[in-house]
Amino acid sequence: MRAGEEATGEVVDRKSRFIAQLAHVEREREAEEFVAAVRARHHDARHNVPAWILADGRERVSDDGEPQRTAGMPTLGALRGAGLADVCCVVTRYFGGTLLGPGGLARAYESAAKAAVANAREAGQLCEMTLVTQVVAQIPYALHDRARRLAEDAGGKVRDSLFAEDVQITLAFRTGDEQAFVRAMDELAAGERLCRVGEPSFSEF
Asked: Are the C-beta atoms of 163 and 92 separated by less than 8 Å?
């Protein structure tokens, strides 16, 4: 989920409304702040059920007054099933007057969370977070087009280009993929080292 953006999804079952709100978080404190903001936004709702997953593997859920394991875990399951991390989902329930039973509740909470994930995906709000290695290639103009093709062949993305006496291209690779590009550039330059390889970092690719 891209930082600063929020996606929603809604399911109605026997007049109960389940509104899922999905946001990017990177720390437990940020998740707690988002949960508090949703609770304030829907202060008149019977339940605001939170579930969050961080990239370091930490997870937390609450049923917020619903029967045990009928709300928080199904919501978390939807996030896990989508392969998401660094996200917080809060599903708000406005009670419609009819009891849904444990199975009905679990399905409704999961469906609302899945709807928010699907809407985020459709809107282009989901992004891949992975280990990324940055490579800076300093090359003569004559090698510019060839270098870009080699980068694309290795799965790299051009982040920046600076044109001066020669060309400086800043590239991003999924960590490990940069090795094929660096080897190809070494061969192209007959052993002259044209690339500076940075340290891997966990970021959007």
From this structure: no
